[in-house]
């Protein structure tokens, strides 16, 4: 029988356990995991209500009073910079009769005023409307419910759980690399929003392999050296190129990487990789598209590499020396995601003078849209009753297997590996 969970989602745990038991290692998930409404409820409970979710960047809220909202599953969250400069997150639900308080996506205000009966909250979530005489309870008991928030070198995560998955290990590992990219001193140059008709896991599985890159991504393949690792005979060259790049990265005083996109943690990875010979950045042709950022700006030097960061279940970023591109996945239902892609440049860069959106965006815009197309084709195909999970490549889809193993471990009740990695 389906039962209500504290998260607000409803599913039959025995049925989910039975589905998990049907999985055969070495290939993708059975059909129900991609199309079934009850599995979607279980995903929202087991994964999305326990994990740290990428909401946006600190630089998107530069001034006190700046706020943004994010609707994730049954919840709406408001993230706001207070007068003290601290960024906090709250449930966007009035403590009177529950109306949504902030009804725009972004804004700047001195506080929040509920549109229903006008209760007012300050930027720290404290109720400022007097309630004792009229409602019989002191206002101090009725602030907006806080949401846990972490800031990793300018990347903001929220967590909806009272018992969140440990994040310290991920935070330290990611911060040690991301700190070089200058994400606090950045601004959004371009935003693209997509509705992608695919299950969120198909979108993430697609991100976790590059076996499809030579087939689907002409732009990405032309600029990204390690795509050659999927081509027989070229893998050795990739290792050599990575060694050369690592020597360059070391001389710059930044972290190094590996040639095989290995995970650096149980549910995250972040590592630096070289670009194709002669490429400075991930643009069409590899020519610079914006002023240098972060460590590279300070040293006035290019690393000719990128930092790739991925965090399950909803974030990845490709940071070049002159810009960064972040992707946020928001699941809508079993067959739909909303995806936002943000391009960041240095905060002082001026559009038209220092960067041109028409040159900044195509590399990742085209690559992303190519991915959404194949993810939607994947969703259409797995919906067929004749879909049977096929075999993963033994050499090129190990990271997809890792994702599926992580997912099933969490769905079965929590991954010991995720805990141990902390
Ligand atoms: S519901 Fe917000 S003031 Fe009444
Ligand atoms: Fe792709």
Features:
2 domains; single chain; globular; binds fe (ii) ion; binds FE2/S2 (inorganic) cluster; 422 residues; Naphthalene 1,2-dioxygenase Alpha Subunit, Chain A, domain 1; 14 helices; Rieske Iron-sulfur Protein; 7-stranded antiparallel beta sheet; 6-stranded antiparallel beta sheet; alpha+beta
Top CATH class of the largest domain: Alpha Beta
Stated plainly, the CATH topology of the largest domain is called Naphthalene 1,2-dioxygenase Alpha Subunit, Chain A, domain 1
Alpha-beta content class:
alpha+beta
The main β sheet shows up as: 7 strands, antiparallel
- The end-to-end span amounts to 35 Å
Fraction of residues in helix:
25-40%
Rg for CA atoms: 22 Å
Overall number of strands: 17
Could you please describe the fold and organization of this structure?
With 422 residues, this protein is α+β, with helices and mostly antiparallel strands. It has helices at 13-21, 32-35, 37-48, 132-135, 168-178, 200-207, 213-216, 218-223, 235-251, 294-299, 357-360, 362-383, 398-411, 416-420, and strands at 3-4, 10-11, 53-57, 66-72, 75-81, 87-91, 106-108, 111-113, 120-122, 146-152, 155-159, 186-196, 268-274, 305-311, 315-319, 324-333, 336-346. The longest helix is centred in the last third of the chain and has 22 residues, at 362-383. Bound molecules: FE2/S2 (inorganic) cluster and fe (ii) ion (FE2).
Short description:
Helix content is 30%, strand content 24%. It has helices at residues 13-21, 32-35, 37-48, 132-135, 168-178, 200-207, 213-216, 218-223, 235-251, 294-299, 357-360, 362-383, 398-411, 416-420, and strands spanning 3-4, 10-11, 53-57, 66-72, 75-81, 87-91, 106-108, 111-113, 120-122, 146-152, 155-159, 186-196, 268-274, 305-311, 315-319, 324-333, 336-346.
């Amino acid at each position: 029988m389906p039962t209500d969970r504290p998260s607000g989602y409803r599913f039959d745990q025995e049925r989910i356990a039975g589905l998990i038991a049907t999985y055969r290692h070495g290939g993708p998930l059975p059909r129900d995991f991609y199309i079934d409404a009850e599995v979607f409820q279980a995903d929202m409970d087991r994964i999305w209500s326990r994990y740290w979710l990428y909401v946006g960047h600190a630089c998107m809220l530069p001034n006190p009073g700046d706020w943004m909202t994010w609707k994730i599953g049954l919840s709406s969250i408001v993230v706001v910079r207070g007068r003290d400069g601290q960024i906090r997150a709250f449930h966007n639900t009035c403590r009177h009769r529950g109306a949504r308080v902030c009804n725009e996506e972004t804004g700047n205000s001195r506080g929040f005023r509920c549109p229903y009966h006008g209760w007012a909250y300050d930027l720290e979530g404290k109720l400022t409307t007097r309630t004792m005489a009229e409602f019989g309870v002191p206002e101090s008991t009725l602030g907006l419910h806080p949401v846990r928030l972490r800031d990793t070198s300018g990347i903001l995560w929220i967590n909806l759980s009272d018992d969140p998955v440990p994040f310290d290990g991920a935070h330290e590992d990611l911060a040690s690399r991301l700190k070089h990219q200058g994400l606090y001193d950045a601004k959004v140059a371009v935003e693209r929003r997509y509705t992608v008709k695919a299950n969120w896991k198909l979108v993430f599985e697609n991100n976790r392999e590059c076996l499809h890159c030579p087939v689907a991504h002409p732009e990405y393949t032309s600029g990204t050296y390690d795509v050659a690792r999927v081509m027989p005979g070229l893998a050795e060259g990739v290792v050599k190129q990575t060694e050369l790049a690592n020597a360059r990265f070391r001389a710059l005083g930044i972290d190094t990487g590996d040639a095989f996109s290995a995970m650096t943690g149980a549910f995250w990875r972040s590592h630096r990789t070289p670009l194709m010979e002669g490429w400075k950045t991930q643009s069409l042709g590899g020519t610079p598209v914006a002023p240098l950022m972060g460590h590279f700006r300070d040293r006035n030097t290019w690393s000719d590499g990128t930092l790739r960061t991925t965090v399950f279940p909803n974030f990845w970023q490709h940071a070049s020396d002159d810009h960064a591109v972040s992707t946020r996945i928001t699941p809508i239902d079993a067959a739909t995601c909303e995806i936002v892609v943000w391009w960041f440049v240095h905060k002082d860069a001026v559009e038209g003078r220092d960067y041109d959106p028409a040159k900044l965006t195509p590399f990742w815009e085209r690559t992303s849209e190519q991915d959404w197309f194949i993810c939607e084709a994947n969703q259409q195909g797995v919906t067929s009753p004749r879909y049977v999970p096929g075999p993963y490549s033994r050499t090129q889809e190990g990271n997809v297997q890792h994702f599926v193993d992580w997912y099933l471990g969490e769905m079965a009740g929590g991954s010991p590996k995720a805990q141990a990695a902390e």
